[in-house]
């Protein structure tokens, strides 16, 4: 007796879904998503490389959207919702940073056999040509106009990044919000040209010190400060993992600019968002200054 079960194909296209799709595949665009990996080499690990970079791209875009939502909430003076949104940004850094595990198996031979095929297929590339990362970095307040040069072949992205460069960053919106809450953020900080690199200053340091002065005062603003620190930590952790992956797979070779890749990357480790929130920690919690004549 043949007990093979013969399955009949059910009626296609459930209500609402386009022909040939399920509601899940229509909503998640799975056919399109899984058509986006096109290896250039015959290295069996290239799929892991492409997937890892593409997942990072998706998370960078997600973080961009979240930061823009948080900026709108801050502009509407809705601190509670802005903090909730920024906590999602903190959460997104966890899977983003975990993507490095997916390519931790790579030796220099693995990486170079893939990269050499990419150069032969598309030309000399650098991740500095990635606009999502740059937009996220601009939104975090690290404004370096020189990176725009990489987008000359992509005029639409050049325009988009140029606009983001000239607009307030998340930190600018935080400082404007603190000003509206009555804290002494100088007018020169609020009215500056947003396209030039932010210059940290003593007055804003003092603002953060005042926010943290009393353990139980300004709890909402302290929570905002701590959430921003978590975001900066997540961002810097990504940079550290990237640097270690570069050391591991590339060593001291010259990179895109002809100089040693690690030497190019090392100074960028000091690009930590929200500068005075960190520098103020050198004196937050210090006892108030006392008049020397009062000392016993
Ligand atoms: C593991 C092998 C990797 C090596 C050896 C490497 C190497 C480098 C080097 C040398 C630079 C400096 C600019 C240049 O010369 O191109 C750079 C920048 C960068 N790379 Fe990588 N990279 C690796 C993997 C990745 C991956 C997987 C991603 C994305 C998921 C990525 C994203 C970036 C970004 C966003 C920058 C700009 C960093 C900044 O502006 O501070 N890299 N990389």
From TrEMBL:
Keywords: Dioxygenase, Heme, Iron, Metal-binding, Oxidoreductase, Tryptophan catabolism. One of its GO terms (molecular function) is L-tryptophan 2,3-dioxygenase activity. Residues 1-24 are annotated as: Disordered. Residues 1-11 have a biased composition (Basic and acidic residues). Its EC number is 1.13.11.11. It is an enzyme of class 1 (oxidoreductase). Pfam families: Trp_dioxygenase. Residues 14-23 have a biased composition (Low complexity). It comes from the Bacteria. The keyword Heme applies. This is Tryptophan 2,3-dioxygenase. It comes from Cupriavidus laharis. The gene is kynA_2.
């Amino acid at each position: 007796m043949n007990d093979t079960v013969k399955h009949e194909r059910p009626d296609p296209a459930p209500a609402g879904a386009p022909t040939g799709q399920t509601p899940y595949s229509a909503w998640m665009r799975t056919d399109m998503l899984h058509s986006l990996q096109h290896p250039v080499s015959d290295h069996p690990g290239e799929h892991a490389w492409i997937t890892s970079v593409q997942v990072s791209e998706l998370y960078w875009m997600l973080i961009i959207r979240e930061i823009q939502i948080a900026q709108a909430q801050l502009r509407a003076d809705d601190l509670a919702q802005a903090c909730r949104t920024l906590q999602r940004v903190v959460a997104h850094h966890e899977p983003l940073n975990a993507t490095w595990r997916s390519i931790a198996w790579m030796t220099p031979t693995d990486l170079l056999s893939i990269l050499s095929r990419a150069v032969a297929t598309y030309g000399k590339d650098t991740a500095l040509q990635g606009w999502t990362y740059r937009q996220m970095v601009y939104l975090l307040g690290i404004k370096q106009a020189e990176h725009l040069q990489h987008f000359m072949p992509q005029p639409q992205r050049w325009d988009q990044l140029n606009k983001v460069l000239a607009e307030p960053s998340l930190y600018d919106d935080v400082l404007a919000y603190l000003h509206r809450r009555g804290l002494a953020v100088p007018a020169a900080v609020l009215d500056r040209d947003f396209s030039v690199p932010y210059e940290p200053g003593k007055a804003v340091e003092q603002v953060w010190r005042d926010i943290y002065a009393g353990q139980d005062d300004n709890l909402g603003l302290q929570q905002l400060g701590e959430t921003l620190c978590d975001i900066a930590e997540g961002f810097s952790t990504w940079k550290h993992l990237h640097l270690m992956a570069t050391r591991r797979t590339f060593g001291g070779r010259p990179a895109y600019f002809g100089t040693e890749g690690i030497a190019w990357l090392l100074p960028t480790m000091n690009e930590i968002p929200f500068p005075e929130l960190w520098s103020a920690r050198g004196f937050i919690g210090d006892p108030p200054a006392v008049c020397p004549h009062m000392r016993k």
